[in-house]
Design brief:
374 residues; alpha+beta; Butyryl-Coa Dehydrogenase, subunit A, domain 1; Butyryl-CoA Dehydrogenase, subunit A, domain 2; Butyryl-CoA Dehydrogenase, subunit A, domain 3; 3 domains; four-stranded antiparallel β-sheet; 10 helices; globular; binds acetoacetyl-coenzyme A
């Protein structure tokens, strides 16, 4: 029922806007409003904070179905989850109560600010500083590659509070767009997900109350990585959706397109391509759903030792599959697939980012190997 409901909304409202949003690099404000009206914009927020209280698998299904028609728009439910999981995992109940209801009501989105220009894969090398001053912290630095920056009202920002302590000297904070000293760089000019703004978040003497720290001092890096254990699964979901969109379009096309006197789908070479695409997609989907079930158990306090492995494995398998499947979809459409008159070239461009963000697939393989070998 959930899949039917979100698919109907995605096909009716979001799909018709996807090509223009990509072309014009415009945040899909109308689609955000439609997602809020149907309560699909941040489904994971627990009911006690006014949210829909959807479990991790339900969140995956929502993201998957939105991504099937528009990857950029799927970053609304995905990044709202990424920005708020640090609070759900580590914040005081006061801090959760101060921010989560606004997200649930659709009054503001929540972004996640970990990376910096010189701290991408090596996230612990960040330089953004937060200095205690009475009952406040003062933040200075520049966060880079921040998804939905500028449109989000709220930001989880990781910053160094003790430069002598390495990864254990990083703390997490809630920063608001409205805080004095917060500004944004220009939109990055990207290959894909062009309707989702990616910008730097610039922090200049941003003074915030100490109560906006998420968890205890020095726990920010652990919270950041523990968050990714849950949210890399949402990137897997996004990749699955993009791939499903491309496969569905290609299947329709090969049944219609005639060459040598018959539909190209009647040729065994094309059939084998379709079979491989569907097989790789379904394998990645089952791994992602298993990872989502583990994420949900872990969220409710059950220790799940292999969550880190499953999360990285799902993200890697699904994003690698999405890149292959979307590339094959372009191939099946031939010259038409290479034009912007058909959606598969956009899907291929959008798929690429899923192999890069929330940790490159090379980092994921490192994370998986560490889990296996330790
Ligand atoms: N959960 C909780 N804690 C964890 C953890 C996890 N999964 N993994 C490691 N830690 C802890 C470690 O135990 C360690 O703490 P102690 O010293 O107290 O034991 C601490 O964190 C540091 O761990 P490591 O020594 O393993 O750290 P590292 O620096 O060697 O490597 C890394 C960590 C895995 C490479 C990490 O930096 C990483 O994942 N890098 C990729 C960055 C990334 O994913 N960025 C995504 C940006 S967000 C984004 O892309 C969003 C978007 O646009 C949509």
């Amino acid at each position: 029922m959930l899949r039917e409901a979100i698919r109907a909304l995605a096909e009716e409202k979001i799909a018709p806007r996807a090509a223009a949003a990509d072309e014009n690099e415009e945040f899909p404000e109308d689609s955000y409003k439609d997602l809020v009206a149907a309560d699909f914009h941040a489904v994971h927020v627990p009911e006690e904070y006014g949210g829909a209280g959807a479990d991790a698998l339900a969140a995956v299904i929502v993201i998957e179905e939105v991504a099937r028609v528009c990857a950029s728009t799927s970053l609304i439910p995905a990044v709202n989850k990424l920005g708020t999981v640090p609070l759900l995992l580590s914040a005081s109940s006061e801090l959760k109560a101060a921010y989560l209801p606004a997200v649930a009501r659709g009054e503001g989105m929540f972004s996640y600010a970990l990376s910096e220009a010189e701290a991408g894969s090596d996230a612990a090398a960040m330089r953004t500083r937060a200095v205690a001053d009475g009952d406040s912290y003062v933040l200075n630095g520049t966060k880079m590659w921040i998804t939905n920056a500028g449109v989000s009202e709220f930001y989880t920002v990781m910053a160094v509070t003790d430069p002598s302590a390495g990864a254990r000297g990083i703390s997490a904070f809630v920063v608001e767009k409205a805080d004095k000293g917060v500004s944004f760089g220009p939109k990055e000019r990207k290959l894909g997900i062009r309707a989702s703004p990616t910008r730097t978040v610039i922090l200049e003497d941003v003074r915030i109350p100490a109560s906006r720290m998420i968890g205890a001092p020095g726990t920010g890096f652990k919270t950041a990585l523990a968050t990714l254990d849950h949210t890399r699964i949402t990137i897997a979901a996004q990749a699955l959706g993009i791939a499903q969109g491309a496969l569905d379009f290609a299947v329709g096309y090969v049944k219609e397109r005639k060459q040598f006197g018959k539909a190209i789908g009647d040729f065994q070479g094309v059939q084998f391509m379709i079979a491989d695409m569907a097989m790789k997609l379904e394998a990645a989907r089952q791994l992602t759903y298993a990872a989502a079930a583990k994420s949900e158990r872990a969220m409710h306090g059950t220790p799940v030792k292999d969550l880190t492995f499953f999360s990285s494995a799902a993200k890697t398998a699904a994003s690698d599959a999405a890149m292959e499947i979307t590339t094959e979809a372009v191939q099946l459409l031939g010259g038409y697939g290479y034009t912007r008159d058909y959606p598969v070239e956009r899907m291929m461009r959008d798929a690429k980012i899923t192999q890069i963000y929330e940790g490159t697939n090379q980092i994921q393989r490192m994370v998986m190997a560490r889990q296996i070998l330790k």
